[in-house]
Amino acid sequence: MKTMKKIALVSLMGVALAASAAALKTDPAKSTVTATFKQMNVPVDAKFKKFSANIDYDAAKPDASKATVEVETGSMDLGDAEYNKEVAKKEWFNAAQFPKATFVSTSIKGAGAGKLNVTGKLTIKGKSADVTFPLTVKADGKNQVFEGALPIKRLTYNIGEGEWKDTSMVADDVTIKFHVVAAQ
Fold it and tell me: Which residues does UniProt assign to the signal peptide (predicted)?
């Protein structure tokens, strides 16, 4: 009986080690998440200063990969303190009530050398939608570099309420771009 328990414990430890071997640690100093949109038809790039990404990726088995990304909505930096305060307000991100936007993958499929198709649920300001986007991945020394762009419609997530629903000032189209550097 003791031997069976010992074998079971060793097996569980092996499974835990194998699972953790695929988990990658994000390097926030080398990673970025930005939102690009048009205001009065002029492109604007805004960087999110705080985010985290949990990625389980094995290049040999990309279909078994998983990813979760959390972005602190109040960390959007438009390059001006007053604008930053404005986008945190209720009409925009409502960062007090919804401090994080999240993406949770439901499927990651290989799409050729260094390419993946990612599907998952994006939740911003309490509104969720299924999204799919292409992703590139490449090895850089001990790191894996994930890059992609996810086009969304801001009004789907109630970003810009009241008078800001009018898309003549701030366009509905937003592209979330990311460059995530991660290592085991």
Answer: 1-21
Q: Is residue 2 part of a domain?
A: no
Is the residue at 72 inside a domain?
Answer: yes
Q: Is the pLDDT of residue 14 over 50?
A: no
Domain that holds residue 95: 24-183
Return d(Cα 53, Cα 4) in angstroms, integer.
Answer: 38
pLDDT band (50, 70, 90) for residue 184: confident
Question: In this structure, is the dihedral angle defined by the CA atoms of residues 51, 56, 62 and 63, taken in order, positive or negative?
Answer: negative
Contact yes or no for 99/82 (Cβ under 8 A):
no
Instruction: Give the list of residues 6+ apart from residue 50 with CB closer than 8 angstroms, or none.
Output: 71, 72, 75
As a whole number of angstroms, the distance between CA 51 and CA 102 comes to 10
**Residue 59 located in a structural domain:** yes
Of the candidates 140, 143, 147, which has an alpha carbon nearest to the alpha carbon of residue 115?
Answer: 147
- Spell out the residues 6+ positions from residue 36 whose beta carbon is closer than 8 angstroms to its own: 43, 44, 45, 46, 174, 175, 177
Residue 19 corresponds to which amino acid? A
What is the reported pLDDT for 22? 55
